[in-house]
Amino acid sequence: DGMNVLFIIVDDLRPVLGCYGDKLVKSPNIDQLASQSMVFSNAYAQQAVCAPSRVSFLTGRRPDTTRLYDFYSYWRAHAGNYSTMPQYFKENGYVTLSVGKVFHPGVSSNYSDDYPYSWSIPPFHPSAEKHENDKTCRGKDGRLYANLVCPVNVTEMPEGTLPDIQSTEEAIRLLNIMKSSRQKFFLAVGYHKPHIPLRYPQEFLKLYPLENITLAPDPWVPKKLPSVAYNPWMDIRQRDDVEALNVSFPYGPLPDDFQRQIRQSYYAAVSYLDVQIGLLLNALDNVGLSNNTIVVFTADHGWSLGEHGEWAKYSNFDVATRVPLMFYVPGMTTSPGSQGARVFPYLDPFSHTGGSAPQGQSQKVVELVSLFPTLADLAGLQVPPACPGTSFGVELCTEGTSIVHHFNVTEGKVQEGREGCDNPARCSDEEPAALSQYPRPADTPQWNSDKPKLKDIRIMGYSLRTIDYRYTLWVQFDPSNFSADFQHVHAGELYMMESDPNQDYNIYNNTSHGWFFKKL
């Protein structure tokens, strides 16, 4: 009898975590999970926006195959009847359960989170979710607003709670039921924070005195950034507190003090999230399932915190595409002999000091589209076959690959991102690369640049990330037949990671590297 799976998916979380080397954040519970896990420090989403990313990794297909670049179509009706990761586990005898935001709600998951295909019982959504965008943030004048920065007193909230607190409670309730049922389960838990609004219990602000908060290292729009690459963060501008600042569209910077407040609240929301994860993993211990449950922790994409003069996601920059990714696999990533001991004691971020290093760490570049085959592999199921070149008619296949072969790292060692190949059968002469993409309606930023509807897409930015560089081409795109024309390049970006880790100096136009572009 195989292992259970606890799949934790977080909304808009970039890797600001202690286990990823962030010195400011307090994330003891996620760090503790990392200390028993294989951690991937170069994992990338396939499109930096919620619905397309989630449908991509839940089906194991890229956005050009799901044909979802916005929020407005259901892949089974619009692209192909693709099996999902939870569906595959369900068809292999697992009870599959969804709590919180796993699929993006709405038409892109058929208004049902893809039930009954993907889930054994109807998915759970926290009732407090409907208040997320209400005016629940107290302003300096004592009145209530729909702000971006929104620390709250939870007891004053509608229903006296917050969505992620409810999701944790429901997930714990389900773990207790599954403990006695003796059936294998695949439990997906989707957390809302740190997605905007940055609404979290106000006590978490205490962890981050404003004087400790810096601006982004590069808070300006890079000189050589093509205008098509810039995302104008419309969703942020529409919040009451940001709207009141009256910044000019699209490049006007937010005031420095407000930038610090956003960064402070993002960190506070991450610590609030860390508490939820701590409670959830502690419950896994309490029901005695830590030694036969695989735990996966990741996010749907990242979020800019002022880098390049940008906020939110909606771009091809690493800050928008890079995600945390870790796998806890009992007996594989854990030290032997720890059976029966508590694996995940709850750690209080207000009192816990001292981080813990990841059990194993790989700098190999990997993609979220590889989650499906990797989880199947780890659970001992048959790995879905690789998709053929065009796979619209193929129900079960994956455009990712299992990354389990990157797990065999000796404890405490970091696996280099660029090393020779130990298994020639598995290696081609290509180095690992992650592909991401982002659509735009026009060459210059406008009101719908962040989230263009399919019919308005005119340009697709295809991005290739290796350990050494990021190369992006913004090419003509025709939404009526989903075709990209690489002969018609609107703009390009090339960043060399070693000398320019923050992607501030685009050298696409000043390179005479003919050989290099050929290789790409």
Automatic annotation (TrEMBL):
Record keyword Calcium present: yes
Cofactor(s) essential for the protein: Ca(2+)
GO BP field: carbohydrate derivative catabolic process
Keyword presence, Metal-binding: yes
A GO MF label: iduronate-2-sulfatase activity
Protein localization: Lysosome
Keyword list, A-Z: Calcium, Disulfide bond, Glycoprotein, Hydrolase, Lysosome, Metal-binding, Signal, Zymogen
Top-level taxon: Eukaryota
Pfam family, one: Sulfatase
Catalytic EC class: hydrolase
Family matches, as InterPro entries: Alkaline_phosphatase_core_sf, IDS, Sulfatase_CS, Sulfatase_N
Function noted in UniProt: Lysosomal enzyme involved in the degradation pathway of dermatan sulfate and heparan sulfate.
Assembly with partners or alone: Monomer. The 58-kDa mature form is composed of two chains resulting from proteolitic processing, the 42-kDa chain and the 14-kDa chain that remain stably associated and form the 58-kDa intermediate form which is enzymatically active.
Family recorded in the similarity comment: Belongs to the sulfatase family.
Designated name of the protein: Iduronate 2-sulfatase
Organism: Sylvia borin (Garden warbler)
Gene name linked to the record: Ids
